[in-house]
Amino acid sequence: MPEQHPGSRPTLEAVAARAGVSRATASRVVNGGDGVRKPLVDRVRQAVEELQYIPNHAARTLVTRRTGAVAVVIAEPEIRIFSDPFFSLQLRGISKELAAHDTQLVLLIVEGPADFDRIARYLSGGHVDGALAFSLHTDDPLPSITRRAGVPTVYGGRPSWTAGPGEQAVQYVDADNRGGARAAVQYLRGLGRERIAYIGGPPDQTSAVDRLDGYRDILVETDPTLIAEGAFTVESGARAMAELLDRRPDLDAVFAANDLMASGALRVLRERGIPVPEQVALVGFDDMDTVAEATDPPLTTVRQEIEGQGRLMARLLLRGLEKDRTGAGRPDSVITPTTLVRRASA
Amino acid sequence: MPEQHPGSRPTLEAVAARAGVSRATASRVVNGGDGVRKPLVDRVRQAVEELQYIPNHAARTLVTRRTGAVAVVIAEPEIRIFSDPFFSLQLRGISKELAAHDTQLVLLIVEGPADFDRIARYLSGGHVDGALAFSLHTDDPLPSITRRAGVPTVYGGRPSWTAGPGEQAVQYVDADNRGGARAAVQYLRGLGRERIAYIGGPPDQTSAVDRLDGYRDILVETDPTLIAEGAFTVESGARAMAELLDRRPDLDAVFAANDLMASGALRVLRERGIPVPEQVALVGFDDMDTVAEATDPPLTTVRQEIEGQGRLMARLLLRGLEKDRTGAGRPDSVITPTTLVRRASA
DNA sequence: GGAGCGAGTGGGAGCGCTCCCATGTCTGTC
DNA sequence: GACAGACATGGGAGCGCTCCCACTCGCTCC
Q1: In this complex, is the C-beta atom of B4 within 8 Å of any C-beta atom belonging to chain A?
Q2: Which CATH superfamily is domain A69-175+308-336 in?
Q3: Residue B85 touches chain A, beta carbons under 8 Å
Q4: Which UniProt keywords apply (chains A, B) (predicted)?
Q5: Contact between residue B44 and residue B25 where contact means Cβ atoms under 8 Å apart
Q6: pLDDT per residue over A198-228, tens digit each?
């Protein structure tokens, strides 16, 4: 185990010398060995092994103009509001996929508006080959930053804007929010429930919009008194539930647009002595295990593969970069399926 | 807003030409402008502005051998077990501090033993100037990896091993766990409590060890029936509490080594109809706001500045890198203070 | 048996930057 | 008013790699 003096790492030159070939040939071997005769390949490989050669990344990037790194941009609010099982799972999926492709993950946390400058500078600096970001509000400056910086970007969650004329279509990965909501409401109807209330998320998030659309797909003549708006938090779910019960004490089912709100709603139902699911059936969304399985009764909910979404985001981006190089078009966005998970609350 | 053709970004050469100076002078200005006369500085700055010049990071790294990036290594279990308010806060602190020093954050998530190879290769590859990692178990391969790769590393939480002879002392940032525990127990004693139980964490984590030591500092003749071991999770806290009550129904206070376990304990106390704090006073540790403020009654707990710890880790590392360059010794580890936060549970 | 061809290999330029060193310029000093 | 000395600037090498191009083989084919 030679303890390397820092800064004295062996170069390709050294490998080539040891293997008795030219630097060019050594380079070919290190990069896959195509078009080099077997014995030479072996000799170079052995030299690499003996010298513990590791390519200098900066030198490689300098000439190839590819960094082998991808930025993950995350706005600070998200890291908190989602109280993370959501985000951390997605990040994990991303990390796995990137690792499998020897691509590094550079994390950019946006703390406030002032940070966008820093982000813009970074992305424009050619430090990364692409970026992954999460679903944003309409006025978010990020899309225009990445576009101007020419950095291919894949979004998690359907963005609320669409590409302008002549622009590349926005690439994203999202769950089938609408379909999942449809399934949930349909299931409640199948149980014989007739006054199905809805606790929605903030209307500036497309996932909330899509879930509401799904609800409406089934309950075409929706009674507005059965709809309340929350903010995807436990507290807001409780508030919305109280509001709904005050307005419509006769409701017999609730579909909440995420599990956190469902758990808040459940708390209120219990406080008021309303048995779940006997009198009011309750369905959530997301299937966050730390929430949906922990409530009493456990939540029936719509499951989405969060980690899988992360993987797909990374895969979509990497594939797009690959295609950019080969001149093909970028791949399309992906909608991942959702499934209804039956537990005790409905 | 010139939409740059990718790959046609202006170089220092171009800036120099436009400002009518040499590349060397342009470089000096870009790197702070020391020893360049004012009018030239201005001219170069203007050229930079006009051309929207952004230095090529790879080229710079190639010659300076500094990457301007730091790795944050995190083992997958942590990301879940702590259910993250803890980790995400620390990460946030790190991110802020690094951003303030124009240093990038490369996130390395270790999924399993097989990943250590990848991590080792990455760290040895000179992709980063340093690394930040989190407190580990005795047999963790990471320390030996970073040492062999010659990557300066700062740990979050006191590591359970110490440096061998002749090795650099291990640098870390940790809360004053022992002092915090002392304060908590002392506080309970001040309330007149006499049979103060302890719910501890896993003994292979130094934070758990240190907190137990603090407890023992005050309760010198500890009764072993008053001590139970948990695993820093809600469930394990509940289990430990039940165990303690079975053994010692007469206990009048509990100090739990973290808030999650305290909330588990609280649940059990409530289930058994034991009033808190009247019959049993309860103190937690960490002051995780999502937990400590959300329980009923809210937890009295020992607060540690988690985000601040993250900042300090980054600062320690950056300062160490600076000193390496100037030839000074690396700075010492840091212990951050804890404070007792009084709420209703004790 | 010689021209033609393709595959394998090496030479060398150059990616964009920093930094050493030589050169030039302007002070201050006797 | 000439000379050292400090300071400012430019020229140029070189960081480690990839990739273009030219070259040399060993074959096939007529």
Answers
A1: yes
A2: Response regulator (3.40.50.2300)
A3: yes
A4: DNA-binding, Transcription, Transcription regulation
A5: yes
A6: 999 999 889 999 999 999 999 988 889 999 9
